[in-house]
Amino acid sequence: MKNIIITLSILFFTTMILPVNGQPPSKGKREKVVHIVLFKFKDGTTVAQIQSLKKEIQKQKGTIPGLIDISFGEDFMDRAKGYTHAEVAVFKDRKTLESFNASEYHQQLIITHIRPILGDILVLDYEPKK
């Protein structure tokens, strides 16, 4: 009986220390960063132009260091005050996002695919805290 209590105590305290993924917590570990971009497009923007932007945004997955996930989609509830599309990207940490924003690749994406059709933009970045 004593061995069972000791074993259960060890299991209990181990689960309190280790997160779900089984990795021990590390001090100073940087949090992931979520990058949200809402788009309003200029009048006259074509479906083809938006699809081209979507393709370029989705093409980044697996090619940008530190970019964990990225998606692009159209609003279907009409509650976004005229913003019709969104990009949501998850980066490894703030430094990775900052490096991406300053990169030549991102600057060219803005010049060639975003600026020509952009009416307005809203960007929000945050670190999800547990």
Could you describe the 3D structure shown?
By secondary structure, the chain is an alpha+beta fold. Helices cover about 35% and strands about 25% of the residues. The radius of gyration is 21 Å and the shape is globular. It starts with a helix and ends with a strand.
Oligomer: single chain
What's the end-to-end separation, in Å?
37 Å
The total beta strand count reads: 4
pLDDT < 50 stretches? 1-27
Average of the residue pLDDT scores: 83
Please estimate the helix content.
Answer: 25-40%
Number of helices in the DSSP assignment: 4
Strand content: 25-35%
Describe the largest sheet: 4 strands, antiparallel
Which of globular, elongated, flat, extended, rod-shaped describes the shape? globular
User: Pairing-aware structural class of the strands and helices?
Assistant: alpha+beta
Rg, Å, rounded: 21 Å
The succession of helices and strands, N to C, reads: HEHEEHHE
Order of adjacent strands in the largest pleated sheet: 2-3-1-4
Keywords, separated by commas or semicolons:
alpha+beta; 4-stranded antiparallel beta sheet; 4 strands; disordered N terminus
Q: Topology of this structure?
A:
Layout: H1 2-17, E1 33-41, H2 47-58, E2 67-74, E3 85-91, H3 94-102, H4 104-114, E4 118-126
Antiparallel strand pairs: 1-3, 1-4, 2-3
Write a compact overview of the structure shown.
The chain has helices spanning 2-17, 47-58, 94-102, 104-114, and strands spanning 33-41, 67-74, 85-91, 118-126.
